[in-house]
What we know:
The complex is a heterodimer. Chain A is an alpha+beta fold. Chain A is 42% helix and 18% strand. Chain A is built from six helices and three strands; from the N terminus they run H-H-E-E-E-H-H-H-H. Chain A has helices at 4-7, 10-17, 65-78, 83-97, 105-109, 125-140, and strands at residues 30-36, 41-50, 53-62. A three-stranded antiparallel sheet of chain A has the order 1-2-3, covered by helices on one side. Chain B is an alpha/beta fold. Helices cover 40% and strands 16% of the residues of chain B. Chain B is built from 15 helices and 17 strands. In chain B, the strands form five sheets. Chain B has a seven-stranded mixed sheet with strand order 4-10-9-8-7-5-6, with helices on both faces. In chain B, strand 7 (183-189), helix 8 and strand 8 form a beta-alpha-beta unit. In chain B, helix 5 (112-127) runs parallel beside helix 6 (146-155). Chain B starts with a helix and ends with a helix. The chains are: A alpha+beta, B alpha/beta.
Amino acid sequence: MADLRELYQEIILEHSKQPRNYRALPAAQHKAEGYNPLCGDHFTVYVNLDGDTIRDVAFEGSGCAISKASASMMTQALKGKSRANAEKLFESFHKLVTGHSESNGAESLGKLAAFSGVSEFPVRVKCATLAWHTLQAALKGEQETVSTE
Amino acid sequence: MTTAANVVTGSYTVPRRHTPFDVERMRRDFVILHQKVNGKPLVYLDNAATSQKPESVLRTIDKYYREYNSNIHRGVHYLSERATQAYEQARSTCQHFINAGDASEIVFLRGTTEAINLVAQTYGRQHVGAGDEIIISAMEHHSGIVPWQMLCQEKNAKLRVIPINDRGELLLDEYEKLLGPKTKFLSLVHVSNVLGTINPVRQVIEVAHRHGVPVMLDGAQAVPHVKVDVRALDCDFYAFSSHKLYGPTGVGVLYGKAKLLEAMPPYQGGGDMISSVTFEKTTYNKLPHKFEAGTPNIAGGIGLGAAIQYVNNLDWDQVELHEREVLEYATERISSVPGVRLIGTAGEKTAVVSFVIEGIHPHDVGTILDQEGIAIRTGHHCAQPLMQRFGIPATARASFALYNTKADVDALVAALHKVLEVFQ
């Protein structure tokens, strides 16, 4: 039986109430939409690259606390990272929330490790990963709206 | 209380013993309610999604499989005769439950969704053409929207929508304006699964009939909570599902006026719906079998019959009174939680309370409630256009059945306060 405190950690609640980088990037080089119709989480992720480095990443939209906090912390974690590092971080994050983390995985994730509780609430994994999948789609230049349902 | 034996051996007329309504006694009939979830007693408030089943229904289904399971309508041996009798008796039970004129007007199928699809694809295809119009309402479940959309697309017809007010009631003046010479059909939900609104269907049907427009009612959320008399309503079609009415999943009923069903082409082809088959020509069976191709959910139909028997044995007035008391109590207590806004405040409602909490997504509400053992539903409830109408992505919904209590409401409200604590 999972403890609610493990899912709704302080840092997650904080980010859901005051999301970081919560704005549009008007002339964004890359952007993509993510939408989970069954639960109503709906985000647009904007990215500006400097060569191979993510110079700026931001998001807009609405959704549950998990999805919003995840998007917010994602933008914080990815600013200044290379595309390759961003990809690796996504993999680690995905493993974390689906309960497939390696023992040292949490270290590289930093604050994102707060989402480890999601693995005990499988129905919320799609909330935690929506923004990340949307970011990937943005970087790949995919036109279709992303969904994690 | 009716036992399974009565159902099987054919004594159809069950004496109406109205036992006084005692909710604790009722709860003992539903063993599933007595369990713990996440260490807390289960509080099941998701009845609009599906209802729980009383012992008598479970025993009936079990008995069918243990004692006389057999394919129906075609056998000459004892078991198959017994199964056929029980199945047809269940059909008769359904007929009387909604006061249809004849058992041949009761078609067994998978559920309400299939019933609407059947009417759209048979009656609809026959009568709707290019430029014609079909009326639905803004509060429909997707099952009452998509089949008609598909038909409109196929036929180049137009879908018109009866608007609703902010309380979740149909705007009847606007409705009348939608009726015209091009209107070929009206499909309307009797009770809304999100708002709980009980629509003034008799009035709506009267007006539609004045314009020569036939009406289908989606009664999935109605039959567990309000008495339905299809002849008094004069609806042309009525559909409901077993699993919302304390019966098993996988079976439901389409009622249609005999003369309409007679004129409709079959829905699915196959065994049982035929009279004679050659490679050159096939003739169809009479009603209702024309619409019942293949081996049906026999256990399901018999189980549905037992569910209706269970409900028939209760004093329906007392059940309605109990549910109304629970609704009033729930409405008052839930709306007193800070930040809560109720969605669906019609004058006439069944015991459904949908709500949103300022700044907190319904899914977060649902997860925290689940940790407290409370089962509600969150999301768009298969009514995305309705969500759009209210400008929200989703609601949290508590829906009550005859075995729910004021104590259930108290548990829910305590958990809502916990939600506020987590998010404050």
